[in-house]
Amino acid sequence: MAERSTAAVDVADNSGDDPLAAQAEKAATDGEAHAAEAAEQDTENDGGERKTREQAALTTPELHSGHKLARRYRLEECVTRLDGFSSWRAVDEKLRRAVGVHILPADHSRARSVLAAARSAALLADPRFVQVLDAVEENDLVYVVHEWLPDAAELTTLLAAGPMEAHDAYQLVSQLSQAMAAAHREGLAHLRLTPGAVLRSSTGQYRIRGLAVNAALRGISAERPQRTDTEAIGALLYAALTQRWPYESDAYGLSGLPKGVGLIAPDQVRAGVHRGLSELAMRALVNDGATASRQEPPCTTPDELAKAVSAMPRIRPPEPTFAPPPDYQRTTYQQGTYGRKPNQAGAPAPQPVVSPPAPLESRTGKALKWAVAALLIAALGLGSWQVADKLLDHDQTTDDPRNSQTTDEEQDDKPKEPVPLTIQGAQEYAPDGTPQNEENARSTYDNDPGSYWRTNSFRDGPDLHPQVKKGVGIVYDLGAERDVASVSIALRHGGKYTKIALYATDSMSPSSSVESMNKIASGQSSGTSLKLTAAKPVKSRYVLLWMTAMPYSQQDSFSNAGYKQAITDVKFTG
Predict the structure, then answer these.
(1) Given phi > 0 = left and psi -120 to 50 = alpha, else beta, which region is 466?
(2) Cβ distance 461 to 563 under 8 Å?
(3) Which of 432, 453, 433 is nearest to 444 (CA)?
(4) Residue 501 CA to chain centroid, in angstroms?
(5) Adjacency order of strands within the sheet including 198-200
(6) How many other CB atoms are there within 10 angstroms of residue 293's CB atom?
(7) What is the 3-state secondary structure of 200-216?
(8) In 3D, which of 282, 214, 191 has the Cα closest to residue 3?
(9) In the chain, what percentage of residues exceed pLDDT 70?
(10) Which of 181, 225, 324, 524 could form a disulfide with 303 if both were Cys (CB 3.0 to 4.6 A apart)?
(11) N-terminal to C-terminal alpha carbon distance within the chain
(12) CA–CA separation, 564 and 286 (whole Å)
């Protein structure tokens, strides 16, 4: 792969990017150079010549956090500063959303090509790519504004956790090859398709960032751009299957192959690798000395690779694993053991039940029986008289209106009947700025079982990963302060379990964190309904329904298979 040992780090579109990882990646590409010196180098695609920053004719503009571009984009954090350009995480104050910005001087030798690449990429408008939002030249600066995906994970991070399952690797090569085939049909190439340029969203969709722009920022070109991008996809598939970079040098946090052995198939590097995917990776990498095990022709364009993927038998996701049900103790009802633990080893055996003595048959015994019978008859008569007298006295007291009044204490002792609480409004609560399905929050109390509010599909579960998303929820307005005692929730998906908690909050857009709110009740369910009941009613007008775990469900018309849930109906009582 012509671009495999690139020292420059890709521009981060994710809040989890670490600039130190870029230095480690650069140091890994040149094992004989010191890490501090390698961090200053950038490998160019055309010929592999290295440049240091001291050799660059231009320097990065001196900008700082808080600086505004076009009175709109406020710079927050510098992610990359390299070879005369810098990349920032910023905020679009007009639309109140996070964005990424590349900035370089207007007289930079690559400024014109960066503007042209950005404007061409913006015309593609393909959701599989991180979108270019703006490309501007003003005040002696050229800057490119692009999407920022806070809920997406970089492929570098995913591979650091271990090799991918066959289904995930299949989705990776399928989505990347189809996306790049569409880009090349429009005359656009990437040329910097590294693990840092691929993001996976919380719904399992892969997004490619830096189309045409990343290469333009670094002055990279290629005689056969389709071959370059195809080989890059093959290298990513190889890394996904083996957690190894398919060349001798270490790169992107991955170890390279042993020196001197050449490029060996993934299923020879790691046991259990899917045979078809292993051969597919070799076909994409064939130009770099690899040979396909079954002598299929090499894939030299993303379109050929996409067709090869579609010709494979589809690899289905693994079946979700469920914990076995707990062992239930058998209750023994046999005489002599009910309500007692079974005998332990070495314990004495239960003693046989001794039969009661036979009734007295003598004359004295008969006399005693007659005496007892007489006493019972007398007691029954006395009891009947007392009951009748009590009833007569009750009739007299109920006629007196003064006796019909009960005390306040007696009224308080009587349990109150639950009262339905009317919901006046609902709004999705997304403290991280990434709502799930905010336009359908009202569908959870419209008494229509066919309408619902849904979450996205998450890869990890059932519990949401706190580093990705702490939870999802809806705030309900009860119109006025009410004593909230319980809530009944109808769910769309059953499964392992769904965790939901109920909190009293201060408004439809809470100003405090969930941890600081007053919890009313919490619980979990494995079915399609859940009822939460407070130990003591809590007075509040606004109530947050907060979900932190959801079951695994298959693909539907809205999202892929994954951990997800939908709420069809919510009813409060007080």
Answers:
(1) alpha
(2) yes
(3) 453
(4) 18
(5) 153-154, 198-200, 206-208
(6) 14
(7) ECCCCCEEECCCCHHHH
(8) 191
(9) 72
(10) 181
(11) 66
(12) 40
Domains of the chain with bracketed CATH: 49-147 (3.30.200.20), 153-311 (1.10.510.10), 420-573 (2.60.120.260)
Burial of 548 (0-12, 13-18, 19+ CB in 10 A): buried
- In this prediction the pTM is 0.51
User: Is residue 377 exposed (0-12), middle (13-18) or buried (19+ Cβ within 10 Å)?
Assistant: exposed
pLDDT digits (tens, 9 = 90+) for 279-336: 999 999 975 555 555 568 899 999 999 999 999 998 988 876 555 555 544 444 444 4
Structure confidence at residue 557 (pLDDT): 72
Other Cβ atoms less than 10 A from the Cβ of 232: the count is 27
CB 510 within 8 A of CB 544: yes
**pLDDT tens, residue by residue, 300-316:** 999 999 999 999 998 98
Long-range contact list for 24-31, CB < 8 A, 24+ apart? 24/253, 25/251, 25/252, 25/253, 28/249, 28/250, 28/251, 28/252, 28/253, 29/5, 29/249, 29/250, 29/251, 30/5, 30/249, 31/249, 31/250
Confidence label for 8 from pLDDT (cuts 50, 70 and 90): very low
User: Which one-letter amino acid corresponds to residue 112?
Assistant: R
Which residue type does 23 have?
Q
- Residues 200 and 465: their CA atoms lie apart, in Å, by 15
* Residue whose pair of structure tokens reads 């990882």 in the numeric block: 21
What are the angstrom distances between the C-alpha of 230 and each of 19, 281, 338, 426?
27, 10, 73, 48
Which pair of structure tokens corresponds to residue 471?
Answer: 């939870």
Task: Please tell me the distance from the alpha carbon of residue 534 to that of residue 519, in angstroms, as a whole number.
Answer: 9
Q: Are strands 244-245 and 255-256 parallel, antiparallel or unpaired?
A: parallel
Tens digits of per-residue pLDDT, 481-511? 999 999 999 999 988 889 999 999 999 888 7
> Rounded to an integer, what distance in angstroms lies between the CA atom of residue 426 and that of residue 441?
6
Backbone angles phi, psi at 447, to 5 degrees: 60, 25
> Where do the DSSP E strands lie in 148-197?
153-154
